[in-house]
């Protein structure tokens, strides 16, 4: 089943003197439960596309469908995880995770039970009364993800979610975040500059050209059961093949 459809998306930015095309006729679909990454040259419009999918900005033309619907209610089912964890240092982990539910006026006993289950499942329950400054960068990212999952989104959008972390932490947290996403069966779209990260985490990868961006390649990745987690996938024979293929496409479309 197709969870989200991106149909003929174009985006032009306007100023008093000029029009700048950013995205040109972008179309693709994401199967329910799949993890898709978007890569492309710097400044090609990856985050712009993610913001359009989230409903934060409107495209110049084209449409987004979630569960085959363009109804605005569908966009309330989207969870967005930004580059920084956006945790509030004066709130406890428990209060940070509940924040989205409070804003939506949707705190219920069952929602609190869901949050508790998530914190227990992903080894954060004992830190519920701590403050973000007392946690490592990787733990903060897990808290940010659980805060997003507390809203029970059907679609997760990740914008460079590990870019603020050091390399070793990025490798470890990618496994942890991937496990959470797959266990919770969330359809996910991630934007990243890191080719290796995209390959390690994704079922599919879309490569965008330089601006105005078009899709130059839509790849399906297959690793097999022996390479089911991001860190393990980096050891797979196909990993370097996929990496070289993406690198070649990006070089061919560089300025």
Automatic annotation (TrEMBL):
<keyword id="KW-0547">Nucleotide-binding</keyword>
<keyword id="KW-0067">ATP-binding</keyword>
<dbReference type="InterPro" id="IPR003439">
    <property type="entry name" value="ABC_transporter-like_ATP-bd"/>
</dbReference>
<keyword id="KW-0813">Transport</keyword>
<dbReference type="InterPro" id="IPR027417">
    <property type="entry name" value="P-loop_NTPase"/>
</dbReference>
<dbReference type="InterPro" id="IPR003593">
    <property type="entry name" value="AAA+_ATPase"/>
</dbReference>
<feature type="domain" description="ABC transporter">
    <location>
        <begin position="4"/>
        <end position="235"/>
    </location>
</feature>
<protein>
    <submittedName>
        <fullName>Spermidine/putrescine ABC transporter ATP-binding protein</fullName>
    </submittedName>
</protein>
<dbReference type="Pfam" id="PF00005">
    <property type="entry name" value="ABC_tran"/>
</dbReference>
<dbReference type="GO" id="GO:0005524">
    <property type="term" value="F:ATP binding"/>
</dbReference>
<dbReference type="InterPro" id="IPR050166">
    <property type="entry name" value="ABC_transporter_ATP-bind"/>
</dbReference>
<dbReference type="InterPro" id="IPR017871">
    <property type="entry name" value="ABC_transporter-like_CS"/>
</dbReference>
<dbReference type="GO" id="GO:0016887">
    <property type="term" value="F:ATP hydrolysis activity"/>
</dbReference>
């Amino acid at each position: 089943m197709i969870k989200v459809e991106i149909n003929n998306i174009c985006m032009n930015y306007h100023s008093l003197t000029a029009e700048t095309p950013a995205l040109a006729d972008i179309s693709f679909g994401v199967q329910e439960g799949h993890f898709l990454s978007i890569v492309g040259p710097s400044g090609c419009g990856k985050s712009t596309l993610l913001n359009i999918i989230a409903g934060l900005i409107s495209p110049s033309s084209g449409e987004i469908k979630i569960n085959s619907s363009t109804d605005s209610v569908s966009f309330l089912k989207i969870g967005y995880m930004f580059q920084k964890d956006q945790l509030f240092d004066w709130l406890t982990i428990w209060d940070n995770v509940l924040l989205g539910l409070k804003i939506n006026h949707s705190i219920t006993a069952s929602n609190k039970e869901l949050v508790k289950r998530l914190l227990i499942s992903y080894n954060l329950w004992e830190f519920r009364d701590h403050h973000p400054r007392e946690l490592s960068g990787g733990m903060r990212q897990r808290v940010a993800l659980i805060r997003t999952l507390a809203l029970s989104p059907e679609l997760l959008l990740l914008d460079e979610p590990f870019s603020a972390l050091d390399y070793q932490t990025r490798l470890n947290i990618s496994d942890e975040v991937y496990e959470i996403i797959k266990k919770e069966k969330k359809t996910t779209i991630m934007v990243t500059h890191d080719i290796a990260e995209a390959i390690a985490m994704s079922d599919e990868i879309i490569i965008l050209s330089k601006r105005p961006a078009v899709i130059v390649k839509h790849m399906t990745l297959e690793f097999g059961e022996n390479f089911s987690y991001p860190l393990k996938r980096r050891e797979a024979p196909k990993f370097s093949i996929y990496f070289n293929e993406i690198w070649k496409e990006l070089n061919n479309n560089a300025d």
